[in-house]
Amino acid sequence: MERTLVLVKPDGVQRGLIGEVIARFERRGLRLVAAKFMQVSKELAETHYAEHKGKVFYDGLITYIVSGPVMAMVWEGPKGIEAVRQTVGSTKPVEAAPGTIRHDFALEVGRNLIHASDKPETAEKEVALWFKKDELVEWKRAVDAWVFEK
Ligand code: DAT
Ligand code: MG
């Protein structure tokens, strides 16, 4: 079972797409572990996007992510990191596969609606950065045996 960080970015929140994003992950069978609606501080934004510091799009990226509230969530499932990235789609919306969130709701890389951790090391770091341990909910669903093989 893998956990991954998902953010509905400010454009997704402003456009009323929080529910749409949650519905897609729920339908896929992923299990919600944590969620909070919050205004991102500049400090948190800079820590979260530290790997992109110095790139041409960095300043725009920080301005974008702090431009309004985000919906931060942790989702889990077997191969959860990969599964969530697949449902999210490629970074550039015009390169994202039809049926993915970025394809279906976005056009521009600087307004690509959603963040998802890209690999296990990143996911672990990002979940710990955005959520305290006691905000992560351990629970089981009656339907789990029909979604998770083991
Ligand atoms: P992802 O969000 O798919 O993990 P990333 O980690 O490479 O993509 O980049 C983080 C964000 O930075 C991305 O969601 C949008 C922005 N970004 C990435 N590449 C960009 C580019 N070439 N031009 C403008 N913004 C870019
Ligand atoms: Mg990334």
Determine the strand fraction and express it as a percent band: 15-25%
Q: Residue-averaged pLDDT, rounded?
A: 98
Order of helices and strands: EHHEHHEHHEHH
C-alpha Rg (nearest Å): 15 Å
The first-level CATH class name: Alpha Beta
Distance between the termini: 10 Å
Q: What is the helix content?
A: 40-55%
Q: Care to describe what's here?
A:
- This protein has helices at residues 10-14, 18-28, 42-48, 58-65, 80-88, 101-105, 120-130, 144-147; strands spanning 2-8, 31-38, 70-77, 114-116.
- It has a single domain (2-138), classed as Nucleoside diphosphate kinase-like domain (Alpha-Beta Plaits, 2-Layer Sandwich).
- It has a four-stranded antiparallel β-sheet with strand order 2-3-1-4.
- It has 150 residues and is of the alpha+beta class.
- Helix content is 40%, strand content 17%.
- Bound molecules: 2'-deoxyadenosine-5'-diphosphate and magnesium ion.
- The site of 2'-deoxyadenosine-5'-diphosphate has 9 residues, from loops.
